[in-house]
Amino acid sequence: MKLRLVARVLALLSAMISIFMFWPLFWAFLDGTPDVKAFSVSIAIGFLIAAFLYIWGRQDSFQDIGIREAFAVVTLSWVTASIIGGLPYLLNGTAATFTDAFFEAMSGFTTTGASILTNIEAEPRGILFWRDLTHWLGGMGIIVLSLAILPFIGVGGMELYKAEVPGPIPEKMTPRIQQTALLLWGVYIFLSALQSILLLFGGMNLFDALTHTFGTMATAGFSPKNASVAHYGSAYIDWVITIFMFLAGSNFALHYHFLQGKWDAWWKDGEFRVYFSITTCCTFIITILLLRKGIYSNIFEALRYAAFQVVSIITTTGFVTADYELWPIFTQFLLLILMFIGGCAGSTSGGIKNLRIMVLVRHAYTELYRLLHPKAIIHTKIGDRTLSKEIVGSITAFFLLYIGLFTLATLLMTGLGLDLVSAISSVAATLGNIGPGLAIVGPTKNYALIPDIGKWILSFCMLLGRLELYTVLILCVPATWRR
């Protein structure tokens, strides 16, 4: 492991995060609020950290980035970003402790949306803008952004890309990794701009439109309003955000192909069809239940709230327009299941991902078929693609690790005194990068009551979920650190 090389890359990322703080600093200057000082000092500290890391690693070349350095860079970049990104919360007094500041920043960059703030609207616009900007930066990925704007990273960029991009099979849309990163960010920016314009037409001001777009396209969930999207009480805004959450939970490569004129790109993709089917079926079931229980008076209202919440949870966004803890228990359990499923590979959403679920189901069927026909030569296939044993094994191991870590973290949270529902849902919501859970971390509550040790456990769960386990866990293997 070339630690100096890792430090050199982290220096660039630290400087980049500090530069992005000028955007919320603009809002603070515009409003003349005290957070001007918090952002100014944070930017200075960020550049000092970048300078120190650069001086330490300046002798090493980016061309020497190998797989071990890539794993270290990706994991540590998110930790470094959360440390620097948490400084404004701490210096402004938004967070009382470093633990709370780190938790809020990690939740932002990992697009989780779990917050410790009890009165969001009391915070200045600079702080609120920064919360949602961290979402947007983390949504497509800090490393992918770096590859798009820092071409001199060069050959080692592919290793960084594979270590960060969500999904079991990272997809290159072009032979050059920098061009792939640019195209992904181009689609991301285009959809973000389109949603912001539509929200402006719905009556939102520019600040609210931008912050809600950041939270939507990153499938994150921070809102500048205490009541989240429910604050507006607008069917138009609800449907716009529902549609864009659904798009953000889809593979961005499909959006690129669609924009290139391949109109059937979405429906030809097997994972998208499964994702669409699960979302549609769950929306239909919850709509019927809400009508039967008399929670909503007509089908249009029930469909609006059911669709929003189903899409918000399966895409791991975490926006809310209703307190779903008041809904029937069956619907709450169904939403809990959706927390584990998540969106599509290659999207900004978290969870296990539909592609992995598909592979696991197909593999299980293959093994059952093999029992009936022991001499048959059969393979696990997704569409026309035959999956290698290595990919199937990797996905099976991922699922076992995911469930194992979920169980361990839940056990630790119950050990801290949380009730079972709160412990289960808080871990599911952070490991799946969703945000709101049930009970004390429900849709109308927050994570302020979680003990400090619990916040560090959940912060680790957020990092594991965003980087899809392997990238983080590989650093626990001693061989990773040997030369």
Please give a structural write-up.
The chain is mainly α and 483 residues long. It is built from 21 helices and 2 strands. Strands 1-2 form a two-stranded antiparallel ribbon. Strand 1 and strand 2 form a beta hairpin. Helix 11 packs parallel to helix 15. The radius of gyration is 22 Å and the shape is globular. About 1% of the residues have low confidence.
Brief synopsis:
It contains 21 helices and two strands. It has helices spanning 3-20, 22-31, 35-57, 67-92, 98-109, 125-140, 142-149, 157-164, 177-201, 206-217, 235-248, 252-259, 265-268, 270-292, 299-314, 329-341, 354-372, 389-415, 420-431, 452-466, 470-473, and strands spanning 381-382, 385-386.
- What is the H/E string? HHHHHHHHHHHHHHHHHEEHHHH
Structural class from helices and strands? Answer: mainly alpha
Helical content, roughly? 55-70%
The residue-averaged pLDDT reads: 87
Physical arrangement of strands within the biggest beta sheet:
1-2
How many β strands by DSSP? 2
Pfam family, one: TrkH
Binding site for K(+): 111-112, 316-317, 433
Family: Belongs to the TrkH potassium transport family.
GO molecular function, one term: potassium:chloride symporter activity
Features:
two-stranded antiparallel sheet, single chain, 21 helices, 1% strand, mainly alpha, 483 residues
Annotate the secondary structure layout:
Elements (H helix, E strand, L loop, with lengths): L2 H18 L1 H10 L3 H23 L9 H26 L5 H12 L15 H16 L1 H8 L7 H8 L12 H25 L4 H12 L17 H14 L3 H8 L5 H4 L1 H23 L6 H16 L14 H13 L12 H19 L8 E2 L2 E2 L2 H27 L4 H12 L20 H15 L3 H4 L10
Antiparallel strand pairs: 1-2
